[in-house]
Amino acid sequence: MRLEQHRTLPDSTRRLAAERRDQQVDRIRTRVRDELLGALHAHPAVRSVTAGLAAEARAGTVTPTLATERILRPVRAAPRRPR
Q1: Which of 8, 41, 69, 74 could form a disulfide with 45 if both were Cys (CB 3.0 to 4.6 A apart)?
Q2: Do 13 and 49 fall into the same domain?
């Protein structure tokens, strides 16, 4: 093995290890996002609100910001579980 190759091997190994650590963090974020969206879509109050909001958004009678607030309102108002 030439000296240059020997020096670059640890660098590439460190980069690969750093990429793997970053992938682990990305997997955590993805799973949390997926779980939260699933819980949001399964929430009965959210389901009842979103049905009409899609039609209102298409008709231009509700802004995306207001629709978002109306979707999230039941979740934000829900009592929090003690830890």
Answers
A1: 74
A2: no
Instruction: Tell me which residues of the chain have a pLDDT lower than 50.
Output: none
Sign of CA dihedral 36, 40, 43, 45: positive
The structure's pTM equals 0.64
Residue 29 one-letter amino acid: R
pLDDT digits (tens, 9 = 90+) for 41-60: 999 999 999 989 999 999 99
> Token pair of 22, please?
């970053």
Question: Which residues form the domain of 63?
Answer: 43-78
Residue 78's nearest CA partner among 39, 28, 33, 37 is: 39
Kindly state whether residue 83 falls inside one of the protein's structural domains.
no
How many residues are recorded in the chain? 83
